[in-house]
Design brief:
Blueprint: E1 9-14, E2 21-26, E3 29-35, E4 49-50, H1 56-66, H2 83-93, E5 101-102, H3 103-109, H4 116-124, E6 137-138, H5 151-161
Parallel strand pairs: 1-4, 5-6
Antiparallel strand pairs: 1-2, 2-3
Helix pairs in contact: 3-4
Length: about 180
């Protein structure tokens, strides 16, 4: 698919412990990683034609991550969003594997104290889940709060990474 600005967009779908993951590349660079049923998931027709070609390294690194062998991704990313959203997503990339931050802590780290709600909204629109670790952001009390991929997946990802977070009583999350 060629977007209105001459961009070449393709996608592939891979299996994971968290269900199918749709990988999207724009001009050969990863621009999306979406879970099935994810909130703010763009329409399928925007993902371009199926083509696994640009995703070999992404698939390799995701495999190493899911095998517990990789704790930090090293991939070129194309994060399309507002200046504020891109700043939030860059902040997510600085949260180490196995650690969490609250929305308020992330807002403070961006020099935007009091912007935790705006940080939460930007976090929810992260186009490259898992690799840009939006699952590592939790509520100020240490509990799980919204996650575009669902609270069960968020808890499973945090447990997988060994990060502590409490699920709300309504989450009914199961581990692997």
């Amino acid at each position: 698919m060629t977007a209105e600005h001459g961009q070449h967009i393709v996608h592939t779908v891979i299996d994971s412990l968290y269900g199918p993951l749709t990988l999207v590349a724009t001009d050969g660079t990863l621009s999306g990683l979406y879970m099935a049923g994810q909130r703010h998931r763009p329409p399928e027709e925007t993902f371009g034609e199926p083509d696994p070609g640009p995703f070999a390294e992404v698939v390799r690194q995701l495999g190493a991550y899911f095998d517990g062998e990789l704790t930090e991704f090293d991939l070129p990313l194309r994060l399309n969003g507002t200046t504020f959203q891109r700043a939030v997503w860059a902040g997510l990339l600085r949260i180490p594997y196995g650690e969490t931050r609250s929305y308020g802590e992330l807002a403070d780290s961006l020099g935007k104290p009091g912007a935790s709600r705006a940080v939460g909204l930007a976090n929810g629109k992260n186009p490259i889940s898992i690799i840009v670790p939006c699952h590592r952001v939790i509520g100020s009390t240490g509990g799980l709060t919204g996650y575009g991929g669902g609270l069960d997946r968020k808890q499973r990802l945090l447990a997988f990474e060994g990060a502590a977070a409490e699920a709300p009583a309504t989450a009914n999350a199961t581990l692997f």
